[in-house]
Amino acid sequence: MKLNDALLGLVFLALSIAVLVTIQGYPKIPGQSIGPGAFPGLIALLLGGCSLALIWRGWQERRAQPLVALGAWLASPRHLLNFCLTVVLLLFYVLASETIGFLICGTIILLVLFFSLRVKPSLAIVLALFVPLVIHLIFYKLLRVPLPWGVLPVLW
Amino acid sequence: MLHAYAQAFALVFDPYVLTVILCSALFGLFVGCIPGLTATMATALLVPITFFMPPVPAVAAIVTATAMAIFSGDIPGALLRIPGTPASAAYTDEAYAMTKKGQAEIALGAGLVFSAIGGLFGTAVMMTSAPALAEIALQFSDFEYFWMVVLGLAGAVFIGNSSVLKASISLLLGLLVACIGLDNPAGHPRFTFGNAELTGGVSLIPMMVGMFAVSEILRYMVHMEPPLKLATEHIGNVFKGMWRLLKKYPWPLVRGSVLGTIIGIQPGSGADMAAWMSYAMAKKFSKEPEKFGTGHVEGIVEAGAANNSALAGAWIPALVFGIPGDSITAIAIGVLYLKGMNPGPTLFINNPQNIYAIFLVFVLANLIMLPLGWLTIKLAKNVLRLSRDILMPTILLFCIVGSFAINNTVFGVALILVFGLLAFVLEENGFPVAPAILGVVLGQMMEENFIKSMIKSDGDPSLFFTRPIAMGLAISTFIILLWPVFGWAWRKLRTA
Amino acid sequence: MKTIFKVAALIAALVAGSAQAQYPNRPVQLIVPWGAGGGTDATARIIGALLEKELKQPFNVVNRTGGSGVVGHDAIARAPADGYTLGLITVEIAMMHHVGLTALKPTDYTPIGLMNADPSGINVRTDAPYKSVKDLLTAIKANPGKFKASGTGQGGIWHLAIAGLLKDQGIDPGALPWVPSQGAAPGLQDLVSGGVEVVPCSIPEARAMIDAGKVRPLAIMDANPPALYPKLPTLKAELGTDWQIAAWRVIAAPKGIPADVQKTLGAALKKVYDSSEYKEFMAKQGYGTVWADSDGAAKFMAAADANLGAALKAVGLAK
Prior knowledge:
The complex is a heterotrimer of chains A (156), B (496) and C (319).
Chain A: E1 2-3, H1 5-23, H2 38-60, E2 68-69, H3 77-100, H4 102-116, H5 121-142
Antiparallel strand pairs in A: 1-2
Helix pairs in contact in A: 1-2, 3-4, 4-5
Chain B: H1 2-12, H2 15-33, H3 39-50, H4 55-72, H5 74-80, H6 86-89, H7 92-100, H8 104-138, H9 142-157, H10 164-179, H11 196-199, H12 204-222, H13 242-248, H14 250-265, H15 271-285, H16 298-321, H17 327-338, H18 346-349, H19 352-380, H20 388-407, H21 411-428, H22 434-456, H23 463-466, H24 468-495
Chain C: H1 2-20, E1 28-32, H2 39-55, E2 59-63, H3 70-78, E3 85-90, H4 96-99, E4 109-125, H5 133-142, E5 149-150, H6 157-168, E6 178-179, H7 184-192, E7 199-202, H8 203-211, E8 215-220, H9 235-239, E9 246-254, H10 259-274, H11 276-285, E10 289-292, H12 294-314
Parallel strand pairs in C: 1-2, 1-3, 5-6
Antiparallel strand pairs in C: 3-9, 4-7, 4-8, 4-9, 4-10
Helix pairs in contact in C: 2-10, 2-11
């Protein structure tokens, strides 16, 4: 998905303006001549300047560079689905892992992605069951990372 | 002194100590390979185990594990474009470009051999002049640190092959991300939207995992071409051709080792910063800077040497004054106290055999890195033979666990998603992501040192230029920044 | 198929059996709001290791860092109150809410036991001309704004320690501007390089520099001299003031854990505190040890909260 530089420049310009507006509310710190707003403000100004240059460049090349050039994958349902699934599965992990646990979440993520990438079903199922177990064992026991058990009982 | 070294030899070449070194080496190699797990984390995990060890093996475990972790972070970077540790992120694109050209063995071999040489260099410096260097490091103040950070940032913009404007924007985005949270000199929460997790700011690791690994996975999900045919069968002897490289690039090796050691000695900056700065420097001084980013080994030679020499450098102020050079030595100092080896000049005078034993461990760790690293590369290259359809989802799961482990919260997982999507869009549009990572590495240091300097000088900025070392660093910064302008003016004058 | 059933039955029996067992029957998390390598982390790791020995379940130390402690303290308070998540809360919990950084107060936790307190020292460079706190304070008073101090972030415990002392001695806290730093180590380095003149911080933090002959402690803000340097005078002896301040650490659980769990933990923690391993560890690192049980720790924190709040207001750090 390729956007014209001018379009991206506008996005960054909006970001730098938003930062500049936000820092107006920051307090002065007694004993410090430079408040907490100065550094982000300076960066936002520089970013704003760069955005203007980017907009200018995009505008000059508006003939050669279309406003939005959709990647070929956006037209292919299969690739679009793969992309969205990855995003959704990460979101799913963030929301659900505490409740249902790492092992179940991990198995679901792998199973869905393997199927979506058309891995041989038998292999997909074996790996989706096996890989999260191994990861959990290594991280939980060896590296002492408190991966959540969720609905499963504590096995080790 | 010779007698003390003989005692130190006896302390180190003891079956128990050697076993500890071997085990922690394997542990370090494993931790470094996994995106999200860092050398610092390897150290923190070793601490409870070292409770039960005598002093020398306790320190040996930490030294060995961190040296291995910093090297093995190169492996996933070169093979999959997913750096294992932030110190490898500087040259990940370069190493991956080499892999695509079928030169994976040169990229990995250079990382391995020159990491070991850099580590040995840093060790030699530590052995010969630790107390004197630590005294000098203590003279550095915020004014000097400020210029060092600016120097690092100036180099970043020129790292890759993309347009300077887009690299600058990427760097500025990184600097803005570094502003998020409460950990700024004013202690005022910025851009947190009232969220407790955001008061902690955006940690570097989830951001890096998101921008490199998750964006790579997203790119794989949408790629339309048949999978890249990687020339894996070529990964034969990783040591082949290293002698040639050594003869071809002696200066980058020396520069990287020296710069790495210096940066390591400075409190608060470690292997990450050393790798970034020396990679930028390699490009600056190279005879063929146009080849950088296309799979050119020169930068890997210099940066690989730099990040391992920084590890040794960081121990210098830690041993002499108990001041940590990086986050790893911060933990190690605690272990030293626990073992009755209290840091300080007396450590070098009373019972010197202990400190010599630590030196020997450094030498040993960098030497066994060669065979063990070779073995790891041999095993790791099989990863390339696996079908990517199986590999990519599995890596995604590792990314989730790694980013969770940094602060043990799913907030890290949310961050990899956000930064994965951001990096995906940026890269599609020709923005390099590496400068954004560097912005986060250095942003906080830059602001802090600037504000501290201004408080100390009662708001008078002239001290940034009048202190001797600060002035020297300021001049170098301006030369680097204005070099392209000079070159342009020179060409103009000649043609006119 | 039969074997699968047998295994399933076995697992079910195990699960059911362990569910009825006494607390703790699974690993416990010990959240530390500060990073690996610091004093709080080290203290938590030794307490965790000893509790593990006492209660026969793993006590995993989990670092939740960032936001000057806000993130970790928040995570401890919001964890399920079942005794399987504990935390090591620090003096900042009695300071941050006065400054408006969080709504959390000491009363949002169930304290299990007070484990340690490190009073603040006052350190100068070895070659500094002042021989006593009195000399130093006179010099600060005579040259307001000339000297700088460092050792923690803006509004941190050591900042408050020195600002409160100045206020107590009738000197404007603004006479000694504060240079924020990431902790005592960079502050001490700044002291040696000549960037600042005073670093108030705990004795174990300054120990390596003191022993290296780079830094000289002038006094301690405590009732008694520290064990490491028994000749170091107290503020009371030097100035006759009662100004005292210390960084302390309390093992705490989220509010509302079951009473029997609290009792089990309290008893185990007391044993840990009394163990020779804990005493030896803390003495080696130079950390001070203090004990108070659940009620005692709650009273201790309430008093500290009131004192620190008043001090923060007096020196103008609280809003």
